[in-house]
Amino acid sequence: MQDQRDADEVAGDGATPEGVAPGGIDGGVLDSRIAEIIAEFSEVFAYARTRWARFAEEVHPELKGVGMIVLQFIVKKGPVTATRIAQMLDMDKAMVSRQVSKLRDLGMIDAEPAPEDRRVVLLTASTSAVELLDGLRDRWAHGYHERFRGWTLEELEVMRDGLHRFNATADLSMPDGPAARCVREQGETAGAEAS
C-alpha cells in the first residue's frame, strides 16, 4: 500500500512519470514483486513435482510424474489436444506425445477424432482415471490442510481468486487454429448438454 501512495505522490499531476508502471506502481517495485512471486512459484512447482512423482509410482511403476501432470491437465481441461497440452504446460511436443501414448496404453485417457475436423484428436480422461485422481485428491487434501493451517478464510479466498485470475490469462495465448476451434466447439457442446 505504501508503494502505491509513493507512486501516486511522484505522479502528482496525474501523468505517469518515467519508471512508473501503469497503475502508479514504481517499475522497480513491480519488477521486484514479480521476481518474488516467480521464486514462490518455483518452490510450489518443486513441491508439486515431488508429490506427482510419488503418486505416479503408486499408480503404475511405468508412469512418471510428468505423466500425472499431463493426466491432471486432461481431466481438468479435456477434451483437449496434445498440442494444447504442450502449449499450456510449456512442454516439448515429443514429451507430451510420449506421455499421451503411455496414458493411452494404461487405459487412463481416450482419444477420439473431433467431429468438426477428423484430423484433430481430442483427449479425454477415462472414468477409471477420474476415479483414481479423485482418490489421490482426497489424500492430497490432508497435506494442504496442514499447510494452510492458521490461514483465515479471507486469506484463502484472496489466494484462490488471485491464482484463478492468473491462470485464466494463460488461455488467452493459444493460437486459433483447427485444434483450438475443435476443442472450443467440443467444450461448448458439452456445456450446452449439461444445461
UniProtKB/TrEMBL annotation:
<feature type="region of interest" description="Disordered">
    <location>
        <begin position="1"/>
        <end position="24"/>
    </location>
</feature>
<dbReference type="InterPro" id="IPR036390">
    <property type="entry name" value="WH_DNA-bd_sf"/>
</dbReference>
<feature type="domain" description="HTH marR-type">
    <location>
        <begin position="31"/>
        <end position="168"/>
    </location>
</feature>
<protein>
    <recommendedName>
        <fullName>HTH marR-type domain-containing protein</fullName>
    </recommendedName>
</protein>
<dbReference type="InterPro" id="IPR036388">
    <property type="entry name" value="WH-like_DNA-bd_sf"/>
</dbReference>
<dbReference type="InterPro" id="IPR039422">
    <property type="entry name" value="MarR/SlyA-like"/>
</dbReference>
<dbReference type="InterPro" id="IPR011991">
    <property type="entry name" value="ArsR-like_HTH"/>
</dbReference>
<dbReference type="InterPro" id="IPR000835">
    <property type="entry name" value="HTH_MarR-typ"/>
</dbReference>
<dbReference type="Pfam" id="PF12802">
    <property type="entry name" value="MarR_2"/>
</dbReference>
